[in-house]
Amino acid sequence: MTDFFHGIPTLRFEGVETESEFAFRHYDPDARILGKRMEDHLRFAICYWHNFAWPGSDPFGGQTFQRPWFGDTMEHARLKADVAFEMFQKLGAPFFCFHDADIRPEGDSFAQNTARLREMTDYLQARMEETGLQLLWGTANLFSHRRYMAGAATNPDPNVFAFAAATVKICMDATHQLGGENYVLWGGREGYETLLNTNLRREREQAGRFLQMAVDYKHKIGFAGTILIEPKPQEPTKHQYDYDVATVYGFLKDFGLEGEVRVNIEQGHAILAGHSFEHELALAASLGILGSIDMNRNDYQSGWDTDQFPNAVPEVALAYYEILRAGGFTTGGTNFDAKLRRQSLDPADLILAHAGAMDICARGLKAAAAILEDGGLEAARAARYAGWETPAAHSMLRSDLDTIAERVIAEEINPEPVSGGQERLENLVNRFV
Binding residues for Mg(2+) 2, per the UniProt record (predicted)? Predict the structure, then answer.
């Protein structure tokens, strides 16, 4: 045990009447929702990076957090891990997620990075065995170091491509050793800042080959988890090759990977791409590539990715509705890729931010399940497309324009518009949230 969270209790479910800050009002891991435990629906994961590696900086200001594990030694890395696992246990979250650079200090060479990562992987494995914590996913940080300023897989320098590929290899090894349920490829700088110095075809082909190599290596080592790509538009580069779910799916189809790779969708990234979170989730589900989610939000008065904890039940409910409609998570889960505000300095802030977010997700899940059980929304959806369930409609899709035109003339087809009933459906949803 460390003394960083001294005096802060382990959180328990106490119900909506509790006066305690350090308790769950809605998140009851053992509550049954649609025949499954709430914990097994939500599959909460706590991220390593924002909680234990981020110093509180933003584009206009430097470090505001002073943490005892900030430093570049292995002793600091072990202390960071101890504090992290203490927080995971206090929250009762079953999973965590990490980048390689979160858990080990940067070395002077690839060999030193590898040695440090392996040492910390063994250390985390021991902590996982002690606590029962599991790894939702691991990934490689291929964007923070200056070597990646022009991308990793898409870099114009083949030596950067090689360094990135080798890093993914050792990170996949670490994820496999720790029993991770997924491995994420997050293209933080896989894009361009100006077309004046960019070969789009070359960079896209490099990215596709890089992903094929990662999938091949997964099978070589017998990693049973899912490979995930996290779509993200714009930030930090002008254009990202993994802009949104539709873009990623087209990329996967081009390189024959649509049956191998799924997506990890973040709420904030969906908004930056001009979509709603539920749109991206529904599209991924319809394409068969829905994998996992990062649950956070943006500040709607800012035009960038602020990574705030969720606090709006209606938004969260619509997201979990699409997840439930898709059959729920398999290897995926709910990772809080969210960070404190720069002025939230206290250890208690870390705990309370997650506690509130977990309660919001629990409320959203319960609302989503109630909407699904009510059936009104799905009945309205089915009624809207009922005409397509007739034999004539089915045969039309196997027909041709000449035949269809003859039928329109013969049957004097002249359809009148039918109301979509959007406001009625919004009212229906609002009964539950």
Answer: 266, 269, 305, 307
- According to the 3-state scheme, what is the secondary structure of 397-413? CCCCHHHHHHHHHHCCC
Burial of 420 (0-12, 13-18, 19+ CB in 10 A): exposed
173 marked as part of a ligand binding site: no
Tens-place pLDDT, residues 4-60:
999 999 999 999 999 999 999 999 999 999 999 999 999 999 999 999 999 999 889
Quick check: is 99 catalytic? yes
Please enumerate, as own/partner, the contacts of 213-221 that have beta carbons within 8 Å and a separation of 24 or more: 213/165, 214/168, 214/172, 214/183, 214/185, 215/257, 215/260, 215/261, 217/168, 217/169, 217/172, 218/172, 218/183, 221/172, 221/173, 221/176
The residue among 230, 144, 180 whose CA lies nearest residue 45 is 180
DSSP 237: S
Say which CATH topology domain 32-374 has: TIM Barrel (3.20.20)
Query: Is 299 an active-site residue?
Result: no
CA angle at 259 for the pair 257 and 260, rounded to the nearest 5°: 65
Instruction: At 392, give phi and psi (nearest 5°).
Output: -65, -40
pLDDT at 187: 76
Q: Residue 419: pLDDT above 90?
A: yes
- The response to whether 359 counts as a known ligand-binding position is no
337 marked ligand binding residue: yes
> Quick one: pLDDT at residue 135?
98
Provide the residue ranges of all domains of the chain, joining segments of one domain with +.
32-374, 386-430
- Which pTM does this prediction carry? 0.97
266 known member of a binding site: yes
Residue in the structure block whose two tokens are 């960083």: 4
Question: Residue 377 corresponds to which amino acid?
Answer: L
Question: Is position 26 annotated in a ligand binding site?
Answer: no
Q: Give residue 236's pLDDT band: very low, low, confident or very high (50, 70, 90).
A: confident
pLDDT of res. 328:
98
Q: Which of 26, 41, 50, 99 is flagged as catalytic?
A: 99
* 3-class state of residue 148 by DSSP: helix
User: Per the residue annotation, which of 102, 173, 242, 244 is the catalytic one?
Assistant: 102
For the chain, counts of helices (H) and of strands (E): 16, 12
Sequence-separated (6 or more) residues with CB below 8 Å from residue 17: none
Pick from 154, 168, 261: which is nearest to 221 by CA?
168
> Pick from 372, 384, 376: which is nearest to 427 by CA?
376
Q: What is the mean pLDDT of residues 370-383?
A: 98
Mean pLDDT, all residues of the chain: 97
Token pair of 40 as six digits: 């097994």
Q: Is 67 a residue whose pLDDT tops 90? A: yes
